[in-house]
Design brief:
7 helices; alpha+beta; about 240 residues; 3-stranded antiparallel sheet
């Protein structure tokens, strides 16, 4: 793997309830359509829709979360996903048949999310106060994270590719959380695109934390996503 010249940042559209009322433009070949949802902006609209739009499993998973902020974030992410999918497909959001593909590692039902028989791939990620949604015409993964505390960086660095661990060790301490967040979101977006998630060994793939852009992963286009200060985000799309 090698570093390519820096690619431009992907810039998501800000998601508002008005976007739910019209069919979204389909993603262009090889280029994901990205939406950024702010929980504080959508909490009120989502609260009125959640019991109607979400299925019983989603409602149960939301209710099981202990913190109100986590419940709100989950509901915003999943209501937004269903509203956008419903608009894409021309069906009621509650009628979108969300399933999981088989995991490529074990065959269990926890691979990429999917709508059977529909040539539209999607991914959703959330962190405190924000949700990132990605749609593409090929396998896609997205991830968004708040910058981690230094102790989190130290604990997780040992799980990474040896070159990534060396890059972080060489990074000045005050810049290490941002470099780690870039690296982690690139890696998790790629692994979500593969369908393995964090079940794949984090040391196998080099994505790197360089501000110049991610490392090249054969068969995938991995890009950073502009989501504002204090956060990092990335999207990975399978090349056709």
């Amino acid at each position: 793997m090698c570093l390519l010249p820096a690619r431009p940042l992907q810039r998501p559209e800000r998601l508002t309830p008005a976007a739910w009322a019209r069919p979204p433009q389909p993603p262009r070949p090889g280029r994901p359509r990205l939406w950024l949802a702010r929980v504080e902006d959508l909490h009120g609209a989502v609260a009125r829709l959640a019991d109607v739009v979400l299925d019983s499993g989603e409602r149960a998973r939301a209710a099981a979360l202990h913190r109100a902020a986590d419940r709100d974030g989950y509901r915003v992410a999943h209501v937004c996903l269903r509203m956008l999918l419903g608009a894409h497909l021309g069906v009621e959001p509650s009628d979108v048949p969300l399933v999981r593909q088989p995991c490529p590692l074990c065959g269990g039902p926890h691979g990429r999310p999917d709508v059977p028989g529909v040539p539209l791939c999607f991914s959703v990620s959330r962190t405190a106060g924000l949700c990132l949604l990605a749609f593409a015409d090929s396998a896609v993964g997205a991830d968004i994270e708040r910058l981690p505390a230094p102790e989190v960086v130290s604990a997780l660095t040992v799980t990474l590719h040896p070159r990534e661990a060396a890059e972080l060790a060489a990074c000045p301490p005050d810049r290490r959380p941002a470099a780690f967040a870039r690296l982690w979101t690139r890696k998790e977006a790629y692994l979500k695109g593969l369908g393995t998630g964090l079940g794949r060994d984090l040391g196998l793939d080099h994505l790197g934390g360089s501000a110049a852009g991610p490392g090249r992963v054969p068969g995938w286009a991995v890009d950073d996503v502009a989501v504002g200060q204090g956060c990092a985000a990335a999207v990975a799309v399978a090349e056709q």
